[in-house]
Amino acid sequence: MAANGNGVSTTPKSPLARIQTQKNGGICHDDSGKPVKAQTIDELHSLQKKRSAPTTPLDGVQGTFATISEDERQRQQLQSISASLASLTRGTGPKVVRGDPAGKVQSVSHVAHHHHIEAPTISVSDSSLKFTHVLYNLSPAELYEQAIKYEKGSFITSTGALATLSGAKTGRSPRDKRVVIDDSTQDELWWGKGSPNIEMDEHTFMVNRERAVDYLNSLDKVFVNDQFLNWDPQNRIKVRIVSARAYHSLFMHNMCIRPTPEELENFGTPDFTIYNAGQFPCNRYTHYMTSSTSIDLNLARREMVILGTQYAGEMKKGLFSVMHYLMPMRQILSLHSGCNMGKDGDVALFFGLSGTGKTTLSTDHNRYLIGDDEHCWSDNGVSNIEGGCYAKCIDLSREKEPDIWNAIKFGTVLENVVFDEHTREVDYGDKSVTENTRAAYPIEYIPNAKIPCVGPHPKNVILLACDAFGVLPPVSKLSLAQTMYHFISGYTALVAGTEDGIKEPTATFSACFGAAFIMLHPTKYAAMLAEKMQKHGATGWLVNTGWSGGR
User: What are the boundaries of the region Disordered (predicted)?
Assistant: First the structure.
């Protein structure tokens, strides 16, 4: 109120309309809708997430987890994981519960200790007094949250991919890979000069396994992936990956075959288990150890232990080595190759070392992609071993590799790339961290991928060589004997830029175009290839993607 010169009070006119109250009760009109059904902020947050359907009907299936209650299924799953994490000196597995330790645990069921083998039992330890939280088969969105919240060096790029760092190791460590030698592997595997298999004894493997398991059990949480290898349903392998990083879990989610809810409910006991304790070093005083890194394969126990390296490619290639052992035992040929199929069903296999054009030639817009790296050739035809692609990113451009460029989106793992700190746009030409920058994405991110990733018997087997000496013809049609010879030789020329220190063209040879991963002698794989080519009428070709008529 203000007074004018006559002492009369006046009220200034407001530009806002007066609020009209209802006469019955004098309450202002509220059009915000009904109040939420929550009394606390925690209750409100619980309404935000809808629980996934816990079970899927399985008609007529008599599997491990079929036709049982959800509580019993989860209890059996946890018991299986506890058995995987069992300490062999204590003979027991840890107490495991589902869920993130930072949130509310959904199921806190005590898991009975599982006696894995007969061993001296220590009465109690610190790890047996605590619960280990299991983050089981998380979705990419959940793994993003875990990585960004808890793992330094994890960022979302401008296209939605998850950029991560693999630590000190930015590539594989083949000199630190060990394979247990025993009565059976001594005769079956390829040992000695030229072989990638460096021996270790069973006792040393158990020392490293115990070190990895103790490290994983000391953590508040571990990530567990139950997945498959090989798209051929008759010959697929169940794998379990236990890891400490969301980055590793998402990488394997992308690279292995992702189970459906029905398949996951009936998963049961895995055929092979990886213990990835890569953040923890091996003990260099342990026999057979030459550094703080060790990647150990035990084919009898169907287990792999990783210590001292966080490079995710060790898991992928470790499983590939396992398939190079298991599949030939079933008379199935395992191949380090690309594979595609024409619209008329004609399948081609592409073999080639780094820099020969294998990825470029197998990713053809006019043909369906079955896979880019690892395959099996059985009596049923060809099948991809993996569920994803692991592409090199150095100097990647939309013009050169549009399919790979477009696949780098939400769900993709980008390893060791450099990006703008503000826009988060990746500079694929920057080698500040490493030249071996990589992208791991599900194969369905490629538009012309054939799902399921299987095909009929190949019509053409194409061996690629980038010959910098100009000796090989551009294209050569090969006899069976010539195909075996060039397959065993695995020749190409390393040119400048392919590897560090290469300034002049250098001849290099890799048996079966993948010597670092084969387990048996190269002639065994070559004989199987010749037998299958002859049986199914495939033609062998040697294609020179380098120079011809002079260097």
Answer: 1-34
